[in-house]
Amino acid sequence: MAARTLVVYAVCPPAQRVACAGMAGEPLRTVRAGRLAAVAGELPRPPRASIAALRRYDAVLRTLAADARALLPARFGTCMASDDELVAVLRARELALRTALREVRGCVQMTLRCVAVHDPPVRPPIVDRGSGLAYLRSLAAEAIRARDMPALEPVLAAVAGWVRAVRVGRNGAVASVYHLVPRKVVQPYAEAARAAADTAGVRMLIAGPFPAYAFSEA
């Protein structure tokens, strides 16, 4: 029998119900490891990254997340050689994964994007050892400054009461804020974000709800 690849879609509690097929139509099942489980399917080879494949992968995860109390999406293309290998990985990362599952329980991801405007960062030169601590502190301050988005402050303040956790990302001039919010407050969260953006004249894109991609430890 030809070897097959175990494609991992998500980490979940052991009681997770799986009622959909994978991105290539393959049957999905849960692989249990103590108080954790993973949703997986078998394919002849690891999936190739493409826009179409990523969309199918996202569709599977959205279906799984809609029926889950807590779900940690796996990075696209996460593959194992066997159930035993997957179980070993789950057991080795049990504490971090269970903590992350508690964080995302009952929640979805909402994403805010805007163009971040900053002066160009100025990095001090690396000089002698005596100034090493000051240099490291300046790098830390620069990293914090890079995550700062004053244009979004009115929006962030307006939705803060619904936010369970935050992640921030930058891709060039585009800044993204990922919010983990309870599923039941998506509509008031979105309405408050849009109203605050309109009032403050902020040009912003709001997207979601999504599975908790930015908050996954899988």
How does this structure look, described?
The strands form two sheets. Strands 1, 2, 3, 4 and 5 form a five-stranded antiparallel beta sheet that branches. Strands 7-8-6-9 form a four-stranded antiparallel beta sheet, with helices on one face. The two termini are 30 Å apart. It has helices at 51-66, 83-92, 94-104, 132-147, 153-159, 186-200; strands at residues 5-12, 28-33, 36-43, 72-73, 79-80, 107-115, 165-171, 174-182, 205-210. The protein is α+β, with helices and mostly antiparallel strands and 218 residues long. It folds into two domains: 5-104; 107-215, Alpha-Beta Plaits, CATH 3.30.70. The longest helix is centred in the N-terminal third of the chain and has 16 residues, at 51-66. Helix 5 (153-159) runs antiparallel to helix 6 (186-200).
